[in-house]
Amino acid sequence: MKIFLIGMMGSGKSSVGERLSKYMDMPFFDTDSMLADSEGISINEIFKKKGEQYFRQIEKESLKKIRGDGVISCGGGSILAKENRNYLKNKGYTIYLKSSLSTLKKRLSNDINMDRPLIDYKNIKKSLKAIYEERKLLFFESANDTVITDNKSLDDICKTIIKNIKVEKV
User: Fold this and answer.
1) Helices (H), the chain
2) Which one of 30, 41, 66, 155 is most buried, by most CB atoms within 10 A?
3) Please, are residues 18 and 72 in contact by the beta-carbon 8 Å criterion?
4) What are all long-range contacts of 118-123, with beta carbons under 8 Å and residues at least 24 apart?
5) Could you give phi then psi for residue 49, rounded to 5 degrees?
6) All domains of the chain, ordered by start, with CATH?
7) 107: closest CA among 128, 133, 93, 88?
8) Residue of 24, 3, 29, 25 lying closest to 14 (CA atoms)
């Protein structure tokens, strides 16, 4: 089974994905890391040098390159393309990791790399709100399940996901 994690930047997709893959004894894939590795530059540099449209195209391709079972952390904007939303729905179990804007702001404010191309770090809250408003319905449309991550440990989030997957399969 493919388990796709979607959500806003800072919602915990990568952290939860790594931990969940250990719990479930499955490989972990992070599409943003895969893209940065294949391009040899950071996501921010891809946006600067090649543009968002190029990034979204290779994001689509990278999602489909993953073979076999695994826990997959999808880029925050991967749900923007209808083709990706359909792929998520048809090829695995998709979990929307939902975090409040205040939680996202706190997490991104502590982001030492400050390497997120769509965030204005001078006004993180405004950036997040605009991105969330554009994507919120797409997250819900794409997901089989929603898990709130605010004030929860990685272990608690993973246990909730595992429990929900087992209930869904029954």
Assistant:
1) 13-24, 31-39, 43-65, 82-91, 101-109, 124-142, 154-169
2) 30
3) no
4) 118/9, 118/47, 118/77, 119/9
5) -85, -35
6) 2-169 (3.40.50.300)
7) 128
8) 29
| pLDDT tens-digit map of 102-132 | 887 887 766 645 565 556 657 777 888 888 8
Residue 12 has a CB neighbour count (10 Å cut-off) of 22
pTM: 0.88
Structure tokens at 126: 């405004």
**pLDDT the model gives residue 92:** 92
H or E stretch at 131: helix 124-142
Quick: pLDDT tens for 130-142: 888 989 999 999 9
Mean pLDDT of 45-73: 88
97 pLDDT above the threshold of 60 = yes
- Alpha carbon distance 59, 86 (integer Å): 14
Predicted confidence at residue 170, as pLDDT, reads 40
